[in-house]
Specification:
The protein is an alpha+beta fold and about 300 residues long. It has one domain. It contains seven helices and 13 strands. The strands form two sheets. It has a ten-stranded antiparallel sheet. A three-stranded mixed sheet has the order 3-4-6.
Amino acid sequence: MTTVPWRWRRDGRRAQQEPLRSALYEGTVVHRRHDALGHHFRAPLFMVALDLDEVEALCRRHPLWSAERRNVVSFRRSDHLGPPEVPLSTAVRQLVTERTGLTTDGPVVLLTHLRTFGWLFNPISVYFCYDGTGKGVVATVAEVTSTPWHERTAYVVEGTGPQALPKQLHVSPFLPMDLSHRFACTPPGERLTVRVDDVRNASTDHDHGETVFSATLALTRTEPTRSAMSRVLVRYPLLTMRVSAGIYWQAFVLWRKGAPFYPHPDAAQRSTDRSRAGRGRCPGHVPGRTASPAHPARRAGRKIRSDRA
């Protein structure tokens, strides 16, 4: 029989008595393309709604969960928005003020995946920024990560939306850049929903624009007890690795179905520049350098090799 160390038992009992705003959320994510392919998929998952003032308190509830150190599940400040040396809640509040002029002086709750067995990929993390009463959401920040480039950007929505914002990041090679993201969500409660639509000709009115793709998280709250924190690790094993693998698998399926492919804008620009630079020049020409005879050392080298031959 395995004995649980006394320190874990002591800290666990103390942590279980602390009332937390943080919670676990279990449910599904659904992706759907609204085009001739009609491709869609559904996957089960869990996420953590983490009050950024409760990181240590939540992790103390389970010996396999930690903050800023290696463990089965770990929270690391550097995995999320803003400079690592700035507290995450401060970085989020500053971003909201810069983008909207709004002031958020209440809790900041982050809906996200945490690093699991050292691996993390978050297609989207959502920050709910509350007012001073802790009841109303003043703004929502959606931090989006692209595949396969792992670039990140953030969108700020007043309240919980719906609101359409121009697409800033080439999230997927199977969707073009000339779209807008339309964000809508519900605040964390017994149920939590996050929906992102990619739309053409979008406006801030959610009834306008042609939806070409939608992603929806439909989640139900679970109290973060030690048993629940153990159960989600068993029910959703190696979740963050499966998220990454699932994205590449779906990309392969889309490729097999003949979905249009859109290269990264930077790669496309570099290709165009190279093509323009190469026009009218002989093969091997380096821009900015005039053609010249072979260097004497190279001629000597060829002569030596021919003599040896």
